[in-house]
């Protein structure tokens, strides 16, 4: 049913976006149309990527998911970089990290926990992911924050580029570890065969690639226009660029993903729900963020990997909280509520900033 | 025997407090009398609350303990707020957190550990509490610290109020989780029946309520006067308001509780000792602190939830240390000494500040 | 074979150091000679200490290892203190902490992990050490950092001295705990008898003491001269004092130790490898650093226990990362790579600073 809605929204939203853009409708209306269109297009991209991943087998599929999983966010960010909106890009990265770790995981744990008293997920994966979260957010993001305080711009950028290269290299190494050298090593043996059998590609290879391409082009068109509405929309609603990036862009870019995590939790498939939330966070922090730093070198305004202090502290604190909640491999409604509480606190903070 | 001493101190201390106040004795003498009187009155309030908790059953009893457990501290703080001593209130909150997490837990682990080689407590509770400690101290206290750096006063207060409401809501949700939806879910099955049978109320319902009311009124009277001695006592001894709040008020407000935690540890009832230390910390951070922020709105000087940097860092660091020590569900004398070492380090720091 | 190389380097390096010093060779050449000579002398001191430790039994042996294990670093630092180079001393302490936690542990896990899919070590030790790491680095180092921001010099020093005394006291208590009251309590029972039998002292008591003394004197001579080359070498290569301290001095002072940790990991003796890396970190943080603060009181320039912000944050972040990686008692090549990645990130940061 959700799929039908997305089809309708897409087939109304895309032409409406084109018409509205050409006719210079009011920014607020366009902003709304663009956002809804992107959310529905993102769901197509997600389904196409998944179909391709199943067709191409677990290794290449894992790689596909790991690189295209946040394609929408990447596309929006590239256009924002091109428009020189570095603050919005850093904010939307922050928003994605917070959104995945606190909002998505929180909703999943909470809604899943309303149905099931205790839900379990693979502890080994949680430990592995905890270390990566600390590496990415607490090491790779905090170090430039502190070291660049008295550094000139060119050195800040050198440091950012160095860290970005290491982040991407380690992200690839993590995929190699998970998909090649240690595939299945930490998984419980039973069921895995049974579960893999039920996975069947929704679309064939050709159809999936066609849809992926078409949706990507459409997203790119809408995203470019979306970026240019930020300033006016911010002024109309009294929102700062920071708030737009952290709350709006992050939610629009990840809405489809968010929904499927919650559905998985409701079906008691916590491994999948956690994998979506944490996996997506790691992808943002270890792949999308550093790629954007490197891409920004091609544009006029370069983006160093230096977040504002509130952004940095929010992310670090969110990582510590989610690790302390996830490290027993068990969840319940109250743990979900705790994560949501943290998200609301930060939301209020960024709104008032 | 301890009870007899408290009776004597109470029946000498209360009239002496009244006489001394009326006759304007020296601040230092009054300060000493007030402190001792409050400590002994607090022990009566504690016993009355516990009796009521047993009589009213586990659910309402748990709620009673959770709200009246730090009543003395709450009363002292309200009078300090009324006198505009925001710095002292924030300091005494800090002192309670540090005192419970480091001093009480440290003494319990150390003294218990001198008698028993290894002591154990419920790991599930420890994990649950760890997440709440991180939520309260590292999220809810750190966020306003960082976000308000460049914020004007009214926005700082809005943020503080928002966070306070969320803290109280989550505290109530935690009680609901513990007492209703997940009662006994994480407890080992055995013994529980046996242990609950041996609990018997010391006082009947009527007597407990009478004593609780009388002691509360007496505490309120003494506390109001105590607050006004701070300035002169500070000057006589060369103590800053900060030091008085962090070390003196915090110890006076929690002395009775502290003693019973150590006694429990000595009896190898580590679950109870840890529950007192950590439970009390959570109550301070998630209930007393936000309630005080909201109450301060009624007074002339409003209190934002913004600690000084040394206070904030000390609390955050104490949380990380105590979590890392507690997360294996086992204690020994050395772990107690480590916590005490941290308390002394911070004590020296606040003394020299 | 490694031993033969060390013998050759020692018997060429020591006379060359003397001759070069007297003939005022270029600083860069001398710097290189001094470094190599110290590395090879350090290996003799390590072997002599170990032989003595075996001869004198586990208790006194443990004490010997715990005090002489970082003798080389201590000697170099004392001469740097004497020359007033406080910045270099603090940097080399930082470098040792980072080097042990990230470089040595990282290399051990990585190289060991290339040979073995999963390697295991004692989880109880890891938990015990985690708490101490947090105590030393996150409590004892962070507190003075934050508290001294607005403190005058004499109070900063008082705080540093107080913390140093507590650190040393707790370090001795930790030895007492490990060697006396809780010896073997947390060790798995099996094998331990078998393993202890195979340990045999390389040298007799007399020979070991003679070599230890001779090597110490030689190290002292070379170290004193090494310290005076820092300024010129820094200028020639464009290295800051900070970088020399953090990367060069730390590696030279610990090279021999580093090598043996990696060899142990390659032999799948992860308990030993982790003990070297983490034990050495604790020794630096809880014994060498505070001893140097106290020794500095004898010199003209006193050293407070206040690191620069990048140093402090790097150490705190390294502790959090290594705890999150080590707390499951299992390692693999990817965990090693993660630690190495963090080391490189910090290395780049300090180079650009």
UniProtKB/TrEMBL annotation, chains A, B, C:
Location of the protein in the cell: Endomembrane system
Looking up Pfam families in the UniProt record yields: Na_Ca_ex (PF01699)
* Protein's membrane topology: Multi-pass membrane protein
Q: Extract one GO molecular function annotation from the record.
A: calcium:proton antiporter activity
- This protein is called Ca(2+)/H(+) antiporter
Q: Which family does it belong to?
A: Belongs to the Ca(2+):cation antiporter (CaCA) (TC 2.A.19) family.
One GO CC term on file:
endomembrane system
Which InterPro entries has this protein been placed in?
Answer: CaH_exchang (IPR004713), CAX-like (IPR004798), NaCa_Exmemb (IPR004837), NCX_ion-bd_dom_sf (IPR044880)
Its taxonomic placement starts with: Bacteria, Bacillati, Bacillota, Bacilli, Bacillales
Which Gene3D superfamilies does the record match to this protein?
NCX, central ion-binding region
Gene Ontology biological-process entries = intracellular calcium ion homeostasis
What is the documented function of this protein?
Ca(+)/H(+) antiporter that extrudes calcium in exchange for external protons.
Source organism: Mesobacillus subterraneus
Instruction: Give the superkingdom in one word.
Output: Bacteria
């Amino acid at each position: 049913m959700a799929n039908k809605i997305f089809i309708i929204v897409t087939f109304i939203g895309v032409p409406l976006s084109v018409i509205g853009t050409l006719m210079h409708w009011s920014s607020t209306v366009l902003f709304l149309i663009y956002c809804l269109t992107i959310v529905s297009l993102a769901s197509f991209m997600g389904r196409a990527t998944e179909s391709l991943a199943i067709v191409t087998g677990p290794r290449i599929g894992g790689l596909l998911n790991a690189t295209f999983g946040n394609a929408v966010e990447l596309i929006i960010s590239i256009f924002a970089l091109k428009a020189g909106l570095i603050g919005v890009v850093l904010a939307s990265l922050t928003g994605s990290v917070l959104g995945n770790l606190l909002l998505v995981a929180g909703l999943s744990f909470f809604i899943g926990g309303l149905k099931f008293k205790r839900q379990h997920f693979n502890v080994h994966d949680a430990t592995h992911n905890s270390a990566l979260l600390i590496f990415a957010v607490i090491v790779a993001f905090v170090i430039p924050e502190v070291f660049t305080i008295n550094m000139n711009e060119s050195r800040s950028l050198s440091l950012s580029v160095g860290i970005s290269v290491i982040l991407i290299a380690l992200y690839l190494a993590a995929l190699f570890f998970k998909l090649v050298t240690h595939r299945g090593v930490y998984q419980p043996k039973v069921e895995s065969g049974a579960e893999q059998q039920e996975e069947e590609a929704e679309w064939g290879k050709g159809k999936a690639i066609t849809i992926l391409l078409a949706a990507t082009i459409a997203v790119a068109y809408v995203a470019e226009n979306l970026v240019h509405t930020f300033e006016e929309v911010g002024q109309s609603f009294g929102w700062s660029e920071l708030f737009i990036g952290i709350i709006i862009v992050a939610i629009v870019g990840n809405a489809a993903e968010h929904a499927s995590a919650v559905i998985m939790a409701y079906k008691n498939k916590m491994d999948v729900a956690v994998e979506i939330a944490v996996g997506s966070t790691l992808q943002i922090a270890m792949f999308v963020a550093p790629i954007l730093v490197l891409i920004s070198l091609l544009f006029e305004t370069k983006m160093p990997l230096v977040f504002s202090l509130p952004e940095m502290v929010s992310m670090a604190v969110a990582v510590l909280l989610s690790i302390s909640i996830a490290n027993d491999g068990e969840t319940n409604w109250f743990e979900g509520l705790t994560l949501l509480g943290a998200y609301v606190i930060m939301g209020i903070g960024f709104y008032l900033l």
